[in-house]
Amino acid sequence: MEWGREMKRVMVLGAVLVVGAVSLAVTEAEQGGPVVEVERLKENLYVLRGGGGNSAAFVTSDGVVLVDTKVAGWGQPLIDRIAELTPNPVTTLINTHAHFDHVSGNVEFPASVEVVAHTNARRLMEEWNPVTGFPGDFPNVFQTSGGQGLPTRTYDDRLSLGSGDDQVDLYYFGRGHTGGDTWVVFPSLRVMHAGDMFPGRQVPIMDASNGGSGVEYARSLRNAWQTVTDIDLIITGHSTQMTRSDLAQMAAFVDTFVADVREAKEAGQSAAEVAASWQVPAEFSGFGSPGPERLEAYVQVIFDELE
Protein backbone atom coordinates (compact mmCIF):
# COMPACT_ATOMS: atom_id res chain seq x y z
CA MET A 1 0.00 0.00 0.00
CA GLU A 2 1.30 3.45 -0.87
CA TRP A 3 2.49 5.71 1.95
CA GLY A 4 -0.18 8.35 1.34
CA ARG A 5 -3.04 5.83 1.31
CA GLU A 6 -1.76 4.24 4.51
CA MET A 7 -1.80 7.64 6.21
CA LYS A 8 -5.55 8.02 5.52
CA ARG A 9 -6.33 4.84 7.47
CA VAL A 10 -4.80 6.13 10.72
CA MET A 11 -7.85 7.02 12.75
CA VAL A 12 -10.10 4.13 11.63
CA LEU A 13 -7.68 1.26 12.29
CA GLY A 14 -6.40 2.83 15.50
CA ALA A 15 -9.87 3.02 17.00
CA VAL A 16 -10.83 -0.54 16.01
CA LEU A 17 -7.77 -2.25 17.44
CA VAL A 18 -7.40 -0.30 20.67
CA VAL A 19 -11.01 -0.96 21.62
CA GLY A 20 -10.43 -4.68 21.11
CA ALA A 21 -7.83 -5.06 23.88
CA VAL A 22 -8.76 -6.71 27.18
CA SER A 23 -7.58 -4.87 30.30
CA LEU A 24 -6.77 -6.44 33.63
CA ALA A 25 -5.63 -4.44 36.64
CA VAL A 26 -3.48 -5.57 39.55
CA THR A 27 -4.44 -4.39 43.00
CA GLU A 28 -1.75 -2.72 45.05
CA ALA A 29 0.27 -5.01 47.30
CA GLU A 30 -0.76 -5.03 50.95
CA GLN A 31 2.45 -3.24 51.92
CA GLY A 32 2.04 -0.59 49.22
CA GLY A 33 4.61 -1.94 46.73
CA PRO A 34 4.80 -1.28 42.98
CA VAL A 35 1.58 -1.83 41.05
CA VAL A 36 1.88 -3.69 37.74
CA GLU A 37 -1.10 -3.24 35.41
CA VAL A 38 -1.67 -5.98 32.85
CA GLU A 39 -3.40 -5.73 29.50
CA ARG A 40 -3.93 -8.95 27.57
CA LEU A 41 -3.49 -8.38 23.83
CA LYS A 42 -3.51 -12.00 22.70
CA GLU A 43 -3.96 -15.37 24.39
CA ASN A 44 -0.21 -15.44 25.15
CA LEU A 45 0.87 -11.79 24.93
CA TYR A 46 0.50 -9.18 27.68
CA VAL A 47 1.44 -5.53 28.08
CA LEU A 48 2.73 -4.75 31.59
CA ARG A 49 2.38 -1.10 32.58
CA GLY A 50 3.68 1.08 35.40
CA GLY A 51 7.16 1.91 36.67
CA GLY A 52 8.58 3.19 33.40
CA GLY A 53 8.26 2.01 29.81
CA ASN A 54 5.69 -0.52 28.68
CA SER A 55 6.91 -4.09 29.06
CA ALA A 56 5.56 -7.04 27.08
CA ALA A 57 5.40 -10.68 28.20
CA PHE A 58 5.23 -13.30 25.44
CA VAL A 59 4.37 -16.74 26.80
CA THR A 60 6.03 -19.42 24.65
CA SER A 61 5.84 -23.19 24.88
CA ASP A 62 8.81 -23.42 27.28
CA GLY A 63 9.27 -19.99 28.83
CA VAL A 64 8.43 -16.30 28.84
CA VAL A 65 10.13 -13.71 26.65
CA LEU A 66 9.96 -10.36 28.47
CA VAL A 67 10.54 -7.06 26.68
CA ASP A 68 11.94 -4.32 28.97
CA THR A 69 12.07 -4.32 32.78
CA LYS A 70 11.22 -0.76 33.87
CA VAL A 71 12.90 1.34 36.57
CA ALA A 72 14.90 -0.01 39.52
CA GLY A 73 12.81 -2.01 41.97
CA TRP A 74 10.29 -3.23 39.42
CA GLY A 75 12.07 -6.43 38.36
CA GLN A 76 10.70 -8.60 41.17
CA PRO A 77 7.15 -7.25 40.85
CA LEU A 78 7.32 -8.17 37.16
CA ILE A 79 8.50 -11.67 38.04
CA ASP A 80 5.71 -12.05 40.60
CA ARG A 81 3.00 -10.77 38.28
CA ILE A 82 4.10 -12.95 35.36
CA ALA A 83 3.99 -15.97 37.69
CA GLU A 84 0.29 -15.23 38.20
CA LEU A 85 -0.28 -15.31 34.43
CA THR A 86 1.65 -18.49 33.59
CA PRO A 87 3.70 -21.22 35.30
CA ASN A 88 6.36 -20.79 32.62
CA PRO A 89 9.49 -19.01 33.91
CA VAL A 90 11.05 -15.95 32.32
CA THR A 91 13.85 -17.32 30.15
CA THR A 92 14.70 -14.31 27.95
CA LEU A 93 14.84 -10.55 28.44
CA ILE A 94 14.92 -8.20 25.46
CA ASN A 95 15.82 -4.55 26.02
CA THR A 96 14.54 -2.14 23.38
CA HIS A 97 17.21 0.40 24.34
CA ALA A 98 19.53 1.46 27.16
CA HIS A 99 17.46 3.97 29.15
CA PHE A 100 17.02 3.50 32.90
CA ASP A 101 13.24 3.19 32.72
CA HIS A 102 13.48 0.18 30.40
CA VAL A 103 16.48 -1.75 31.73
CA SER A 104 16.97 -1.15 35.45
CA GLY A 105 14.84 -4.11 36.50
CA ASN A 106 17.23 -6.45 34.64
CA VAL A 107 19.41 -6.82 37.70
CA GLU A 108 16.58 -8.42 39.69
CA PHE A 109 16.28 -11.40 37.35
CA PRO A 110 18.30 -14.61 37.81
CA ALA A 111 21.67 -14.74 36.07
CA SER A 112 20.39 -17.74 34.09
CA VAL A 113 18.02 -15.51 32.12
CA GLU A 114 19.40 -14.58 28.68
CA VAL A 115 19.44 -10.81 28.08
CA VAL A 116 19.34 -9.66 24.45
CA ALA A 117 19.84 -6.18 23.01
CA HIS A 118 21.41 -4.32 20.11
CA THR A 119 25.20 -4.12 20.19
CA ASN A 120 25.09 -0.36 20.70
CA ALA A 121 22.54 -0.70 23.50
CA ARG A 122 24.85 -2.98 25.48
CA ARG A 123 27.67 -0.44 25.19
CA LEU A 124 25.36 2.39 26.21
CA MET A 125 24.16 0.46 29.26
CA GLU A 126 27.76 0.12 30.34
CA GLU A 127 28.41 3.84 29.77
CA TRP A 128 25.18 4.90 31.55
CA ASN A 129 25.15 8.35 29.97
CA PRO A 130 22.64 11.01 31.02
CA VAL A 131 19.52 11.30 28.84
CA THR A 132 19.42 14.40 26.65
CA GLY A 133 16.69 16.77 27.79
CA PHE A 134 15.63 14.54 30.67
CA PRO A 135 16.79 15.78 34.08
CA GLY A 136 17.60 13.42 36.90
CA ASP A 137 20.40 11.35 38.38
CA PHE A 138 19.45 7.70 38.00
CA PRO A 139 21.62 5.10 39.79
CA ASN A 140 23.81 2.94 37.58
CA VAL A 141 22.27 -0.42 38.46
CA PHE A 142 24.78 -2.38 36.39
CA GLN A 143 27.72 -0.87 38.21
CA THR A 144 26.12 -1.78 41.54
CA SER A 145 25.31 -5.33 40.37
CA GLY A 146 28.82 -5.97 39.08
CA GLY A 147 27.50 -6.28 35.54
CA GLN A 148 24.66 -8.70 36.22
CA GLY A 149 21.71 -7.87 34.01
CA LEU A 150 23.79 -6.56 31.12
CA PRO A 151 23.01 -8.14 27.73
CA THR A 152 24.57 -11.56 27.25
CA ARG A 153 23.65 -11.71 23.57
CA THR A 154 23.76 -8.89 21.02
CA TYR A 155 23.05 -8.35 17.33
CA ASP A 156 23.71 -5.67 14.70
CA ASP A 157 20.89 -5.65 12.12
CA ARG A 158 18.47 -8.53 12.67
CA LEU A 159 18.13 -11.53 14.96
CA SER A 160 15.49 -14.24 15.29
CA LEU A 161 14.84 -16.10 18.54
CA GLY A 162 12.83 -19.32 18.69
CA SER A 163 10.84 -20.79 15.82
CA GLY A 164 7.30 -21.43 14.66
CA ASP A 165 4.62 -19.81 16.80
CA ASP A 166 7.29 -18.98 19.41
CA GLN A 167 9.48 -16.95 17.04
CA VAL A 168 10.51 -13.43 17.98
CA ASP A 169 12.29 -11.19 15.43
CA LEU A 170 14.53 -8.30 16.46
CA TYR A 171 15.33 -5.44 14.09
CA TYR A 172 17.54 -2.36 14.13
CA PHE A 173 16.31 0.28 11.67
CA GLY A 174 18.68 3.15 12.42
CA ARG A 175 19.25 6.02 14.82
CA GLY A 176 16.43 7.93 16.43
CA HIS A 177 15.55 7.82 20.12
CA THR A 178 19.05 6.41 20.79
CA GLY A 179 21.72 4.78 18.69
CA GLY A 180 20.68 1.24 19.62
CA ASP A 181 16.88 0.91 19.41
CA THR A 182 15.44 -2.57 18.92
CA TRP A 183 12.06 -3.23 17.34
CA VAL A 184 10.58 -6.52 18.60
CA VAL A 185 8.20 -8.44 16.33
CA PHE A 186 5.98 -11.38 17.29
CA PRO A 187 5.18 -12.64 13.76
CA SER A 188 2.67 -15.33 14.73
CA LEU A 189 0.63 -12.70 16.57
CA ARG A 190 1.12 -9.84 14.07
CA VAL A 191 2.29 -7.54 16.87
CA MET A 192 5.38 -5.33 17.17
CA HIS A 193 6.91 -3.61 20.22
CA ALA A 194 8.48 -0.32 19.13
CA GLY A 195 10.00 0.78 22.43
CA ASP A 196 10.58 4.51 22.65
CA MET A 197 11.16 4.92 18.93
CA PHE A 198 7.37 5.24 19.05
CA PRO A 199 6.61 6.40 22.61
CA GLY A 200 3.16 7.67 21.65
CA ARG A 201 1.77 10.63 19.75
CA GLN A 202 4.32 13.20 20.87
CA VAL A 203 7.64 14.84 20.11
CA PRO A 204 10.01 11.99 20.99
CA ILE A 205 13.18 12.20 23.06
CA MET A 206 16.12 12.60 20.69
CA ASP A 207 18.91 11.46 22.96
CA ALA A 208 22.14 12.60 21.33
CA SER A 209 24.04 11.66 24.52
CA ASN A 210 23.20 8.04 23.73
CA GLY A 211 23.62 8.11 19.96
CA GLY A 212 20.15 9.37 19.07
CA SER A 213 19.35 11.61 16.11
CA GLY A 214 16.67 14.11 15.22
CA VAL A 215 17.57 14.37 11.53
CA GLU A 216 17.59 10.59 11.01
CA TYR A 217 14.60 9.79 13.26
CA ALA A 218 11.82 9.84 10.66
CA ARG A 219 13.89 7.79 8.21
CA SER A 220 14.31 5.07 10.85
CA LEU A 221 10.56 5.09 11.51
CA ARG A 222 9.89 4.67 7.79
CA ASN A 223 12.41 1.85 7.58
CA ALA A 224 10.35 0.04 10.20
CA TRP A 225 7.08 0.83 8.42
CA GLN A 226 8.39 -0.37 5.05
CA THR A 227 10.09 -3.54 6.36
CA VAL A 228 7.60 -4.94 8.86
CA THR A 229 4.32 -5.14 6.97
CA ASP A 230 2.60 -8.19 8.45
CA ILE A 231 1.47 -6.62 11.73
CA ASP A 232 -1.80 -5.23 13.01
CA LEU A 233 -0.78 -3.78 16.37
CA ILE A 234 2.18 -1.83 17.76
CA ILE A 235 3.02 -1.69 21.46
CA THR A 236 4.36 1.79 22.13
CA GLY A 237 6.96 2.80 24.67
CA HIS A 238 4.70 4.81 26.97
CA SER A 239 1.21 5.01 25.49
CA THR A 240 -1.62 2.79 24.26
CA GLN A 241 -1.33 0.45 21.29
CA MET A 242 -1.04 1.89 17.80
CA THR A 243 -1.15 0.59 14.22
CA ARG A 244 1.07 0.71 11.13
CA SER A 245 -1.00 3.69 10.01
CA ASP A 246 -0.18 5.46 13.27
CA LEU A 247 3.50 4.69 12.67
CA ALA A 248 3.24 6.34 9.25
CA GLN A 249 1.71 9.41 10.84
CA MET A 250 4.42 9.48 13.51
CA ALA A 251 7.09 9.55 10.81
CA ALA A 252 5.31 12.42 9.07
CA PHE A 253 5.02 14.29 12.37
CA VAL A 254 8.72 13.98 13.15
CA ASP A 255 9.56 15.00 9.58
CA THR A 256 7.44 18.13 10.00
CA PHE A 257 9.03 19.00 13.33
CA VAL A 258 12.55 18.64 11.91
CA ALA A 259 11.62 20.67 8.82
CA ASP A 260 10.20 23.47 10.99
CA VAL A 261 13.36 23.50 13.10
CA ARG A 262 15.55 23.56 9.98
CA GLU A 263 13.59 26.49 8.57
CA ALA A 264 13.84 28.40 11.85
CA LYS A 265 17.58 27.82 12.07
CA GLU A 266 18.05 29.08 8.51
CA ALA A 267 16.03 32.16 9.49
CA GLY A 268 18.51 32.87 12.29
CA GLN A 269 16.40 31.88 15.28
CA SER A 270 17.99 30.38 18.39
CA ALA A 271 17.02 27.00 19.80
CA ALA A 272 15.36 28.74 22.75
CA GLU A 273 13.30 30.94 20.43
CA VAL A 274 12.14 27.95 18.40
CA ALA A 275 11.18 25.99 21.51
CA ALA A 276 9.22 28.92 22.91
CA SER A 277 7.21 29.49 19.73
CA TRP A 278 6.78 26.08 18.07
CA GLN A 279 3.32 24.55 18.16
CA VAL A 280 1.98 21.22 16.98
CA PRO A 281 0.61 21.73 13.44
CA ALA A 282 -3.15 21.47 13.04
CA GLU A 283 -2.92 18.38 10.81
CA PHE A 284 -1.39 16.50 13.75
CA SER A 285 -4.18 17.16 16.21
CA GLY A 286 -3.83 14.82 19.18
CA PHE A 287 -0.02 14.94 19.20
CA GLY A 288 1.75 16.49 22.18
CA SER A 289 4.92 18.45 22.84
CA PRO A 290 6.97 18.90 26.02
CA GLY A 291 7.40 22.31 27.60
CA PRO A 292 9.85 24.78 26.06
CA GLU A 293 12.73 23.82 28.38
CA ARG A 294 12.72 20.17 27.33
CA LEU A 295 11.78 20.92 23.73
CA GLU A 296 14.79 23.21 23.45
CA ALA A 297 17.09 20.25 24.08
CA TYR A 298 15.71 18.39 21.04
CA VAL A 299 15.74 21.51 18.89
CA GLN A 300 19.40 21.90 19.84
CA VAL A 301 20.10 18.28 18.85
CA ILE A 302 18.71 19.03 15.39
CA PHE A 303 20.59 22.35 15.21
CA ASP A 304 23.86 20.55 15.99
CA GLU A 305 23.23 17.91 13.33
CA LEU A 306 22.50 20.56 10.70
CA GLU A 307 25.83 22.34 11.17
CATH classification, class level:
Alpha Beta
- Listing every helix as H and every strand as E from the N terminus to the C terminus, the arrangement reads HHEEEEEHEHEHHEEEEEHEHHH
Number of domains: 1
Class by SSE composition: alpha/beta
CATH superfamily: Ribonuclease Z/Hydroxyacylglutathione hydrolase-like
Strand order of the largest sheet: 1-2-3-4-5-6-7-8
Could you list the spans in which at least 5 consecutive residues all have pLDDT below 50? 1-31
By DSSP, the count of extended strands is 13
* Main pleated-sheet profile: 8 strands, mixed
CA radius of gyration: 19 Å
Indicate the proportion of strand residues: 15-25%
Return the average pLDDT rounded to an integer. Answer: 91
What is the CATH third-level topology name?
Metallo-beta-lactamase, Chain A
- The dominant shape is globular
> How many alpha or pi helices?
10
The N- and C-terminal alpha carbons lie at a distance of 36 Å
Q: What is the secondary structure topology, with strand pairs?
A:
Blueprint: H1 3-8, H2 10-19, E1 22-24, E2 37-42, E3 45-49, E4 55-59, E5 64-67, H3 75-85, E6 90-94, H4 100-103, E7 114-118, H5 119-127, H6 141-144, E8 153-155, E9 158-161, E10 168-171, E11 183-186, E12 191-195, H7 217-227, E13 233-236, H8 244-266, H9 271-277, H10 292-306
Parallel strand pairs: 5-6, 6-7, 7-8, 12-13
Antiparallel strand pairs: 1-2, 2-3, 3-4, 4-5, 9-10, 10-11, 11-12
Helix pairs in contact: 2-8, 7-8, 8-10, 9-10
